[in-house]
Specification:
alpha+beta, 7-stranded antiparallel beta sheet
């Protein structure tokens, strides 16, 4: 049984960790966190709270997720950890030749071509069926209310919305994109910070999903509307693709990091990369206050993890090597020995960015959920199905057009996926859920967060607030403005090309909940890099 106080020092942060006894919801939007807490107070469990929070986030943070996106979850229920993969496949008619026939050499980021089957509504229904306590429709009341009545934009949300509008205004002039502007810029501009935005279409769609437990989205009128607009715009997704989709319950994968088991969803997600990085750094002892050598080894380990992972990750059935091989101690030891005193250049692709949302929930019965959902690149494809508020994801843009690569596009195949929920256990007991959202920064954020908790014994809030680094490519590393200057200079001397960022916006956004086994007290941290909030009871 792990000790709450030996995992971290509860007094080790200038920003206070949040404590509670009956329940906790941590996410990037205050209204969504409150929605989850309301459900807990009505008698719902951590799963009910996660669904309510996730549905609400499609309304109160549409810049990063939506009804037309994917989702993954790790659920600790009755002393067992379950994994749910709700990432949808490519439409069956989508293929490399079909994309080339449209004149593309690579898969575009916007429009109907990169649209894959959305998995989020099915994830909500599946989680409720397996573990929920309350009626499904009751979980959508907060989200529907905010969509109908409107809410005021928070600061980071407003900035991200304006950034997306400026980008789309310059890129998306085709008629198929007009519903996006009608929905998210109804007055001809992005709503500003503190301004109220509402969407009757969102409310109507969420109500249909709530009343039919998602069936309307995959088999009913909503599925028909998606099909119709896709046909009109020359898209590939059809009602048959939606009808055939079902989320998959999977066995989570893990590595033991210095006595703690760190869990991720298996591929097609990139959680494997985080575990590979931790497996390598497990061969080093770090100072409680990290020095130059500690940061150097972490960065080099993550380079190796990415160079291996980016060449392997795709739908698991198409991977060339087994997870056991990639996470073997022999492989990790070999990589650890290859880390020397100078920065190296691994073989890996330049890393990209994306938008997604992460949430963590916990109830007084000991149940906990680590949940993440995404439209991929901010608002996704730029396609909104008219009259529905459904912003469709562009997850298909992460497929390769090279048939020789494991992540090559094929109809019915799930692509390499960036969004990853995390969970920590020790001696078969839950420590708690954690996650860092933000594209390919996520495995890097997971490694840094776990190391802060376990190596530095930081409390949850301090672990989140710690200055982060982000490897970009080759020897290029960008660090936050608050990153220690003497460490940055030391890394430069080791051959890293260090750039100090002007802001913290691109370094991931995370949440953590940790439970004390003896008392059940919950300790949570929320992200200071965004509009993070923890609602407690």
């Amino acid at each position: 049984m792990h000790s709450f106080d030996t995992l971290f020092n509860p007094h080790s942060s200038t920003r206070m960790t949040t404590y509670a006894t009956k329940g906790m919801v941590a996410t990037s939007q205050p209204l969504a966190a409150q929605a989850g807490l309301d459900i807990l107070k009505k008698g719902g469990n951590a799963v009910d709270a996660a669904i309510a929070t996730a549905a609400c986030l499609t309304v109160v943070e549409p810049t990063s997720n939506g009804i037309g996106g994917d989702a993954f979850a790790l659920v600790w229920m009755r002393d067992h950890l379950y994994g749910l993969n709700a990432s949808g496949p490519a439409p069956h008619s989508l293929s490399i030749p079909a994309v080339k026939e449209k004149g593309y050499k690579s898969i575009p980021e916007h429009g109907f071509v990169p649209v894959t089957v959305p998995g989020a509504p099915a994830a909500w229904a599946e989680l409720s069926d397996k573990f929920g306590k309350l009626d499904f429709h009751e979980l959508f009341t907060p989200a529907i209310s905010h969509a109908e009545n409107g809410y005021a934009l928070t600061p980071d949300l407003g900035r991200q919305w304006e950034k997306a509008f400026d980008k789309f205004k310059g890129l998306l002039s085709d008629e198929q994109f007009q519903p996006w502007f009608d929905t998210f810029a109804p007055s001809g501009k992005a709503p500003g910070i503190g301004e109220v935005w509402s969407s009757a279409d969102h409310a109507s769609t969420l109500r249909a999903i709530a009343e039919t437990k998602g069936a309307d989205f995959y088999k009913g009128d909503l599925a028909g509307q998606i099909d119709s607009f896709s046909r009109k715009c020359g898209g590939f997704i059809r009602k048959e693709d939606l009808q055939q989709f079902k989320p998959e319950w999977v066995e989570p994968i893990s590595v033991n990091y210095k006595g703690y088991d760190v869990w991720e969803i298996p591929p097609n997600g990139q959680g494997l990369i985080a575990l590979m990085g931790l497996n390598i750094t497990n061969h080093f002892q770090f100072e409680s206050t990290f020095n130059v050598d500690d940061y150097h080894r972490q960065i080099e380990a993550m380079k190796f993890a990415y160079s291996d992972g980016m060449n392997q990750l795709t739908d698991q059935m198409d991977m060339k090597h087994t997870i056991g091989t990639l996470l073997s101690q022999e492989r990790a030891e070999e990589r650890a020995k290859q880390i020397d005193q100078e920065a190296g250049i691994p073989k890996a692709s330049e890393l990209s960015q994306e938008g997604n949302v992460y949430l963590a929930t916990a109830d007084e019965e000991g149940n906990m959920v680590s949940f993440i959902q995404s439209n991929y690149d901010g608002f996704g494809s730029g396609i909104v199905v008219p009259g529905t508020g459904i912003a469709l994801q562009n997850r298909g843009s992460s497929f390769s057009m090279n048939v020789k690569q494991v992540n090559a596009l094929a109809g019915g195949k799930r692509s390499f996926h960036t969004i990853i929920p995390g969970f920590i256990t020790k001696d078969d007991e839950a420590v708690g859920p954690f996650g860092v959202m933000g594209g390919t920064v996520q495995p890097q954020g997971h490694l840094q967060l776990v190391s802060q908790l376990i190596d530095a014994k930081a409390n949850p809030q301090m672990a989140l607030d710690a200055p982060r680094w982000k490897w970009l490519k080759e020897r290029e590393v960008i660090v936050e403005p608050s990153f220690p200057n003497h460490v940055a200079q030391g890394l430069e001397r080791k051959g890293h090309r260090i750039t100090v960022a002007l802001s913290r916006i691109d370094f991931g956004r995370g949440q953590i909940i940790v439970r004390q086994p003896e008392s059940g007290v919950l300790a949570g941290g929320t992200e200071s890099r965004t509009d993070g909030a923890i609602a407690v009871w």
